[in-house]
TrEMBL record, chains A, B:
An individual GO BP term: nervous system development
Gene name of this polypeptide: trappc6b
Compartment(s) of residence: Endoplasmic reticulum; Golgi apparatus, cis-Golgi network
Organism: Betta splendens
Coiled-coil positions: none
GO CC annotation, single: TRAPP complex
Transferase among keywords: no
Function: Component of a transport protein particle (TRAPP) complex that may function in specific stages of inter-organelle traffic. Specifically involved in the early development of neural circuitry, likely by controlling the frequency and amplitude of intracellular calcium transients implicated in the regulation of neuron differentiation and survival.
Signal peptide per UniProt: none
Main localization (coarse): endoplasmic reticulum
Entry's family note: Belongs to the TRAPP small subunits family. BET3 subfamily.
UniProt KW Ubl conjugation keyword: no
Annotated protein name in UniProt: Trafficking protein particle complex subunit 6B
Length: 158, 158
């Protein structure tokens, strides 16, 4: 079965729709990335609510991040994050070696410049979920070799 | 787990996005429904390709419809169609007693007029999947009592 496919294909349609109307200027591109990030944020918050209805509280920040890497990621992408690293000072790097939303893109270097558009929604998704858990963060992403992808989470101390 | 939630929440964001820009006139509403239907169509085609990669051929039209009601519906909505009826003359009625994409709406009658907007994508989804199986169709939907929903498929003989 292709369990992650409905989400993946719908995400792709959303991208196409948002970018079709765009004029291609840098400002417009920036606005689109922001829109996608906000949509991701809301979806992340909504998902978090449903996923944690019956979950016990988390004991610390690392525990929260593990939840994002396992339960949350699996719910959306049907796989876990492959690697989680932290500097123990509020920065976490979540690596997905086969990020589903990049799967449609070919592995070539020429597609790297397109990647922000494919990553913005998911950055928002993580930020929204963390926010729902009371953790304020900044989330960025980068692709080095397709379709592997790293999400960097910087916790904002309140 | 809330396995259908990522798709459901993303679909809701897409609706909000498309309708936010709309002026609310009837023509605009119609265009939005058409856009959603086309997006559904493409997602339906894409999903179908992935789902039938290893599937044997279908023996007849009814067999195709059963596949839509079971495998296809489960992939997208994590449940099967509750009831399938046919007049054996090319009309099929697929009833879902708890249609996921209506789940956010309250059960009151006052929301019935909103329902085309919530159903258009899925009409396209079914039409796209059937098209991928070589079956040309017209798909419409109606809600009588929320969140139950009937999709009517009219097969177009070629």
């Amino acid at each position: 079965m292709a369990d992650e496919a409905p989400f993946q294909l719908l995400h792709y349609e959303l991208l196409q729709y948002i970018y079709k109307a765009a004029d291609g200027g840098d400002a417009e591109q920036g606005r689109n990335v922001t829109k996608l990030e906000s949509m991701g944020f809301r979806v992340g918050q909504g998902l978090l609510e449903r996923l944690t209805k019956d979950t016990a509280r988390f004991k610390d920040e690392l525990d929260v991040m593990k939840f994002i890497c396992k339960d949350f990621w699996t719910c959306v992408f049907k796989k876990q994050i492959d690697n989680l690293r932290t500097n123990h000072q509020g920065i976490y790097v979540l690596q997905d070696n086969a990020f589903r939303l990049l799967a449609q893109l070919s592995a070539g270097k020429q597609y790297l410049e397109l990647s922000p558009k494919y990553l913005a929604f998911t950055c928002g998704l993580v930020r929204g979920a963390l926010c729902g858990l009371g953790v304020k963060s900044i989330v960025t992403a980068e692709v080095s070799v397709m379709p592997a992808c790293k999400f960097q989470v910087m916790i904002q101390k309140m």
